[in-house]
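Work Package 4 report. The design task specified in the project plan requires that, given a folded chain encoded as structure tokens, an amino acid be chosen for each position. We show below one input record used in the internal validation round.
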């Protein structure tokens, strides 16, 4: 299955948000893609931090950034069904 185009993803997430806001997500078909999209942003940050770390010759700063990115990504996985507590500066847009 191919990855959705940016416009397709935007439309799907908007519709998912509407379903959640109107309590019409009986089978969690809206919650699931919204959650995956949220988590994907953190995992993409981990990938980017890993690339920077490896490209920089395994520098201390890159290592520290990679560890922080991994910790933030792990927070999103910690408690299924519970929103993670992240500071505003931790959110990756």
């Amino acid at each position: 299955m191919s990855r959705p185009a940016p416009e397709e993803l935007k439309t799907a997430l908007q519709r998912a948000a509407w379903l959640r806001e109107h309590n019409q997500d009986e089978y969690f078909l809206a919650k699931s893609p919204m959650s995956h999209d949220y988590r994907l942003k953190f995992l993409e940050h981990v990938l980017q931090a890993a690339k920077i770390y490896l490209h920089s010759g395994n520098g201390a700063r890159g290592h520290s950034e990679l560890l922080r990115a991994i910790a933030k990504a792990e927070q999103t996985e910690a408690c299924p069904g519970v929103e993670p507590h992240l500071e505003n500066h931790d959110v990756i847009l």
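The chain has three helices and no strands. Validation will be extended to a larger panel in the next phase.
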